[in-house]
Write a structure and sequence with these properties.
Heat Shock Protein 90, rod-shaped, alpha+beta, about 400 residues
Length: about 400
């Protein structure tokens, strides 16, 4: 309840400043009254008037801290010569001004202002009362140094809280940006998978449909077999599309668990699907097969799938050679067809994507995403060649680049 009231009052800073000035005036006047009740000295109207003027300047500390400090310091020096007896209560406006100056300015300024006030006020008190005891002089200096120290601590604490809040906000923004980046990367990956799946199976279906149409009159049994393979290809396409698009389902949708991502273990089945579409493929594996990280395994499969799809579209019926070569730190994939690619929309040989469509661009991006590289282009003796060098594991991408 008290905390709520304080927060409400903090919404009206001018009112709080006026109450503070009134409290300081009460402290200064109360000190004079206590001296009179003790019978030591009579109250001095001039000292009370100076105290009232100094207290009236304190509410402006938010906008003019230096001016308030100068007015109250002048008051403190003058009061040393005017007041019959000087004590800390009469210096309340100056002490408040030193506190606010320390809170609102830097440490060097606050310390300089405190030192100046201590020297001037103490010097004026000593000149006015040269017989004052050493304890009284030390006490006067201590009272002047106290508000500056408290204000410096408050300012440091506020700066620490502000820095902590800023770091927390920065960390939150960084987490949000990272989450958005990962979502965007995942969308791009899913889009690539959709492109590969649709392009691959549509190319096979188109090739098989053309073969079936060609054989329909001359060899109905063979045409029926090709159409059976066409049904298998389209069914496989639907299953892969379901597995890929299923990644976009909600987390609480648990029906029909997703299939694992494809990898090189499914390479024989992939080659078999192309052979059914009248694309003769020869597979060669060199070196001892080594385990691949899931990302590299999927990337290798998709690159081979896209390269064979391009060969089926642009060079149907031409012999195609697929070579998978394992080394200690990387795997090299090669897809070469022997037919001149005059009808293929393909870039010139080179390390980067060219104007050959989204398929080649996707292969380049997939290879680069796992730390590998890919080249694609026409062969000097005709045909088309795709070569991809991939690390065995995505974490060794830098090592592979350095050793290349």
């Amino acid at each position: 309840m008290t905390d709520t009231r304080w927060r409400r009052a903090a919404r009206h800073p001018r009112l709080l400043d006026m109450l503070l000035a009134l409290a300081l005036l009460v402290v200064a006047g109360g000190t004079t009254l206590l001296n009179r009740l003790g019978g030591s000295v009579e109250p001095d109207p001039v000292a009370l008037a100076l105290a009232a003027a100094a207290c009236a300047a304190v509410p402006f500390h938010r906008s003019r801290p230096y001016a308030v400090y100068g007015v109250t310091l002048l008051y403190g020096v003058v009061i040393c010569f005017v007041a019959p007896r000087l004590d800390a209560g009469l210096l309340a406006p100056l002490l408040a001004a030193l506190y606010f100056l320390a809170v609102q300015t830097d440490r060097r300024t606050a310390r300089l202002a405190t030192a100046v006030a201590a020297v001037l006020v103490t010097g004026a008190a000593v000149i006015d009362e040269p017989t004052a005891s050493l304890d009284a002089k030390i006490g006067m200096v201590a009272w002047i140094l106290l508000p500056g120290s408290i204000g410096d601590s408050v300012r440091t604490h506020r700066a620490h809280l502000a820095a902590t809040k800023e770091r927390a906000e920065l960390a939150e923004r960084t987490r949000e940006q990272e989450a958005r980046r990962r979502v965007a990367d995942e969308r791009v990956r899913i889009a690539r998978d959709l492109h590969d799946v649709v392009t691959h199976h549509m190319a096979l279906a188109n090739a098989q449909a053309g073969i079936a149409l060609h054989l329909l009159d001359r060899n109905p049994d063979k045409a029926r077999e090709v159409l059976t393979h066409l049904g298998d290809a389209t069914g496989s396409a639907l299953r892969e599309l379901k597995a890929t698009v299923g990644l976009l389902r909600r987390a609480d949708d648990l029906e029909d668990p997703l299939e694992p991502a494809p990898g090189l273990a499914r390479l024989p089945a992939l080659i078999g699907s192309f052979e059914q579409a009248d694309l003769p493929v020869r597979l060669t594996v060199e070196g001892e097969p080594r385990p691949l990280s899931p990302g590299v395994d999927l990337t290798a499969y998709r690159i081979l799938q896209e390269a064979l799809t391009n060969a089926a579209k642009h060079a149907p019926g031409s012999p195609t050679a697929v070579t998978v070569k394992y080394t200690d730190i990387r795997i090299r994939l090669t897809v070469a067809n022997d037919r001149p690619a005059a009808t293929a929309s393909a870039p010139e040989p080179g390390p980067g994507p060219g104007p050959g469509g989204f398929g080649l661009i996707g292969m380049h991006e997939r290879a680069a995403a796992v730390g590998g590289r890919l080249t694609a282009g026409r062969r000097p003796d005709g045909g088309f060649l795709v070569t991809a060098d991939l690390p065995l594991r995505t974490g060794t991408a830098r090592q592979n680049k350095d050793s290349a």
